Amino acid sequence: MDYKKYINEIVKTGATLNLLEPLEPSIEVVLGSVVWLDNPVALKWCTPFPQHQGHVHILDYDSVKTEWDRDVLFFRGDVMVAGITTSIESGLNTDKVLEVVAEWLSKHNNVEKHARFLEDAIQ
After folding, report:
1. CB 24 within 8 A of CB 12
2. Separation of alpha carbons 28 and 18, rounded Å
3. Which residue segments constitute the domains of the chain, with CATH numbers given?
4. CA 38 to each of CA 12, 14, 31, 110: distance values in angstroms, whole numbers, following the listed order
5. CA angle 82, 54, 63 (to 5 degrees)
6. b/e per residue 71-104 (b: at least 16 CB within 10 A)
7. What's the CA gap between 72 and 85, in Å, rounded?
């Protein structure tokens, strides 16, 4: 599985990020956008409708594993720090996630504007 391509696609239709480490308990959020960084290896992400670039986050990871051709799991060493899956497989209310994503994609040319917004944040 090309996990980067897969995540880029499911973000458009409803994806969630579950942040595990060092949070107790974990938190699960709807993904609005992602950008893959190569040096250092990381995932830049934010939820839909960020008010400013301070709402952009970086997920550092060492390795990625995929499971069931559905879940993408991120590790630092042997510790799983996050996972991304479709909204249907998440612990969130699927209808609400899909509603938020549909609203996000339909408003104010968000897709194009947000691509620039995310690229510029946290260089």
Report:
1. no
2. 4
3. 3-120 (2.30.29)
4. 22, 24, 20, 25
5. 25
6. ebbbeeeeebbbbbbbbeebebeeeebeebbeeb
7. 7
Distance, in Å, from the CA atom of 47 to the CA atom of 32, rounded to the nearest integer, reads 4
Closest-CA residue to 115 (of 2, 41, 12): 12
Return the residue matching tokens 């069931």. Answer: 68
- Partnered with residue 76 across adjacent β-strands are 79
Residue 82: its H or E element: strand 79-86
Cβ neighbours, 10 Å, residue 116: 9
pLDDT tens for residues 43-98?
988 888 766 555 788 999 999 999 888 899 999 999 999 999 998 888 888 888 88
Per residue in 96-117, pLDDT (tens digit) is 888 887 777 776 666 666 666 6
Asked if residues 55 and 33 have their Cβ atoms less than 8 Å apart, the reply is: no
